[in-house]
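Note to self: keep these together.
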Amino acid sequence: MVKHQLRARGIADEDVLTVMGRVARHLFVPFSLREEAYEDHPLPIGEGQTISQPYIVALMTEALCVTGKAKVLEIGTGSGYQTAILAELANTVFTVERSSTLSSAAQQRLRDLGYENIQFVVGDGTLGLPAQAPFDRIIATGSLPRLPQGLLDQLAPDGICVLPVGDRFLQRLLQVKKVGSSVEQHNLGACCFVPLIGKEGWSS
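Structure:
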């Protein structure tokens, strides 16, 4: 996976590649789909949600530029796979999931794997976590119709946010950097994510 799907397609951050090679992706997918766990496509995880393809996980993580001291907010826990990748790289990860079922399963899975630097929250991730802000990095693992101002307000100075923005069927993967009182946006390419349901996301 790392050699043929990630490095060969331009992922160059050695820390990201190392972590992607270390985290056992098959533990985050339904047992019936484990044979497909390392193939480069998304897989269903229940509740209408998916685990993103390995390349997209690597691309987003690389664009996030996570450091060992970073405090990260993840919107959309899902299976917990992206959460684990972030937890390997960051100091602390706060992850918000709308589905209590998915959140509970991910929490158990990640606790069993020994992760102790993750805080789990059930709620509307599109609103972020104002009480825990600011965050050095913010990542959304589902699509949004627009860039929520509330998330930008929770981003620390010089912070980075990576999220898919667009319509229900096609989005742009954006890297947003907070520079002083302004933001810089970089388009990382076209993508298609499941929608984030919430006040600052999709209504249904």
